[in-house]
Write a structure and sequence with these properties.
By secondary structure, the chain is α/β, with parallel strands linked by helices. It has a seven-stranded mixed sheet, sandwiched between helices. A five-stranded parallel sheet has the order 2-1-3-4-5, sandwiched between helices. α2 packs across α10, α5 packs across α6 and α10 packs across α11. The chain starts with a helix and ends with a strand.
Length: 379
């Protein structure tokens, strides 16, 4: 009898634990994330992930979303397209997520878009700027501005603010992000009356740019446009300055993280960003304060874009009144309101219509810093 009682008690306990576990699972919705958490562009992915986690924490502290708490399941794609597909497949099949945030770079994001559209999974990238990313279908969104806008912003800033009339371009010919910015800069700079005096390419992984720099120097430019990632720009700036090229350097949001890896050679450098940490906007200031308090580090544009990415998804779900992605996608497309990185509304391709901040790299008390210069809005 005692043995039967113990068996019954054990079964009751197991059933009770299973009930609690099921109830907990039913009260929780998992959000998937695919980012480069290691590798050359890990800064982008980890910053975005931290911004997303801050948003989730705030949502949960405020009572959750439609009565449910959110959890984040993040996977590392190392900035690699094949690994982003593997991560996406794991999240959507094993973890059963219906929302995936990421990736950081355009190539890794594009590797997932067809799968997301086919599976009716909402995929939204904080920072994939290539135009083609959202063209796959109506389940694909982004939080950042697109490459052509960044290139136009760079050209307008160089021509109007810096007074440049002769530009050189040095870009990675093997990366969609870099080539997209370079193309739009060249076309717009010429269209507004500027001259491209040197147009130099290199291949991913190159570390010696002296041959290209020599040809750039021969063109005697007023500005050098470097639409590349910060790890390459660090080397390029050193080699440009070493050959006596002292003109302004201009780039895109791939420069985020540059000041942590470069020296004074990047002074007189300007870049287009999705967010300025020294913003005077109350919403932006509140985010910066919360992020710094949680992580004990400065907020970057990637952390701000990650935060807004999660908030856009949350606002879409709230507006739809359901987690059903077939309904939420329409609600998200109609969002129009203030966010940390500015006022956001989506165009017909689910690309946000928003301005770009121009940041200047300055020496502040002996340390490099990004200082807000101006904002360029869509025309």
């Amino acid at each position: 009898m005692k043995k039967l009682f113990l068996i019954a008690l054990t079964l009751c306990c197991a059933a009770s634990m299973a009930f609690v576990a099921c109830k907990k699972a039913a009260d929780t919705v998992a959000i998937g994330a695919v980012f480069p958490l290691s590798g050359q562009v890990a800064f982008y992915g980890n910053e975005s992930k931290d911004g997303i986690q801050l948003a989730i924490d705030e949502i949960n502290e405020a009572g959750g979303l439609l009565g449910k708490k959110l959890t984040l399941i993040a996977e590392d794609d190392e900035g690699n397209a094949e690994k982003s597909v593997n991560a996406f497949t794991k999240l959507t099949t094993r973890d059963k997520v219906s929302y995936v945030l990421g990736s950081s770079t355009s190539g890794a994001t594009q590797a997932m878009t067809a799968l997301a559209q086919q599976g009716k999974v909402i995929l939204i990238s904080p920072s994939a700027t290539n135009t083609a990313v959202t063209r796959v279908g109506d389940y694909i969104f982004r939080t950042c501005f697109i490459d052509p806008f960044q290139g136009v912003v760079g050209a307008d800033f160089a021509f109007d603010t810096l007074g440049a009339r002769r530009a050189a371009v040095l870009y990675d010919a093997g990366a969609d992000y870099n080539t997209g910015l370079a193309e739009s800069f060249r076309e717009h700079f010429r269209a507004i009356g500027g001259q491209v005096v040197a147009d130099e390419a290199y291949q991913s992984g190159d570390v010696d740019f002296n041959a290209q720099v020599t040809r750039i120097k021969a063109g005697d430019p007023d500005v050098v446009y470097l639409p590349n990632y910060y790890n390459d720009v660090t080397l390029q700036a050193k080699q440009l300055r070493a050959q006596g090229i002292v003109c302004a350097l201009v780039g895109g949001d791939g420069w985020d993280g540059l000041i942590d890896n470069a020296g004074d050679e990047v002074l007189n450098g300007f870049w287009s960003a999705g967010f300025a940490a020294d913003t005077t906007d109350p919403r932006g200031q509140a985010f910066v304060n919360a992020f710094t308090a949680k992580y004990n580090k400065p907020a970057s544009q990637f952390s701000a874009l990650g935060y807004d990415t999660m908030m856009l998804v949350a606002d879409g779900i709230k507006a739809a009144g359901t987690f059903d992605t077939s309904v939420v996608k329409g609600a998200m497309a109609n969002l129009n309101g203030p966010y940390v990185t500015g006022h956001i509304r989506f165009d017909e391709n689910r690309d946000p219509i928003k301005g770009a901040a121009i940041l200047e790299i300055v020496n502040r008390d002996g340390k490099l810093a990004n200082a807000y210069k101006t904002t360029v809005n869509p025309k």
